[in-house]
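Title: Prediction job returns without error message
Component: structure pipeline
Severity: low
Priority: P3
Assignee: unassigned

Description:
Job completed but the reporter wants confirmation the result is attached to the right record. Sequence as submitted:
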Amino acid sequence: MSGHQEPHPALKTRATELFGVEYPVVQTGMGYVSDAGLTAATARAGGLGILSAGLLSYEELAAAIERVQSLTDRPFGVNLRADQPDVRKRIDLLIATGVKVASFALAPKPDLIARCKEAGMVVVPSVGARRHAEKVASWGADAVIVQGGEGGGHTGQVPTSLLLPQVVDAVGIVVIGAGGYFDGRGLVSALAYGADGVAMGTRFLLTSDSPVAQAVKEVYLSKTVDDTVLTRQIDGVPQRVVRGGPVAALEKSTAAGRLFRAARNAQGFRKMSGTAWRDMVREGWAMKKGQGLTWSQVVMAANAPMLYRTALLEGDPERGVMATGQVVGMIDDLPGCDELISRIVREATEVLERLGA
């Protein structure tokens, strides 16, 4: 830890050993946010960076993996969507390029987990309920990221303070807490619950290494813990986002109006990403079957990427959507990943030493 204090021994956990990283801190996979630059910066700082692949074409994913590997030789992960039509091809790419961790936004089926594990990859699904953690553990997952209700993006109702100990008591695999974490005190609290580390999304989004437009970062920094809302109006599944902008309009609009807007945005995303209609329909059918969504919800799910891109990359929060955890109200600076992780480790070490004394 060049020039930094020696971390407390309790910060060497099953997670640091499993992932091959220095510190039990994970940067989650976030569409349009967890790009090659942020992922590599996290890895260089001693945490586990996770590249988001859900909105990348296969070719873009291959280029992004190559970019991360040109920036660091440290381990990193790639976040996949288990319902994508070419998910097996993507897993084969991860295997061929030597990616250490396969992270999944939706629970991967046992055969996908087995394929990753046969190749020596570490499999880490994200879950929002104890029963999902038990299921993926029984299928052979190596670890789970457990996100409580205060977390950003797709999330459930149970707060981290209840969900995390519930999952720790239910499974024997490595457990990473997510939802509400931003500093060393939070890391120690997760360890006290029996978790092996923490995962953070909003805190890494608000770093100087994140690709999010500066004007949008400033909007995030102005928000309080009361400025988020849990809504189904973006893609039919509960999501925590910044209140206001198009979210307020979506909450008020009729079902027909939402569907029209969603279809228009889905067409825009198809053009921008170069995704063929047949692939979008196939993906939609997989979502309908796998997640029990209506066709209306499927169209809304195709709508979400454009809403996020408009805010995060194009810098237009008035027309786009900003996913965030409630923790946004606790963050007031934009450090680099190295500074952020060093600070968290230092704070956690101070707390552990104070408690030990």
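Comment from assignee: result matches the submitted record. Residues 154 and 239 are 4 Å apart (CA to CA).
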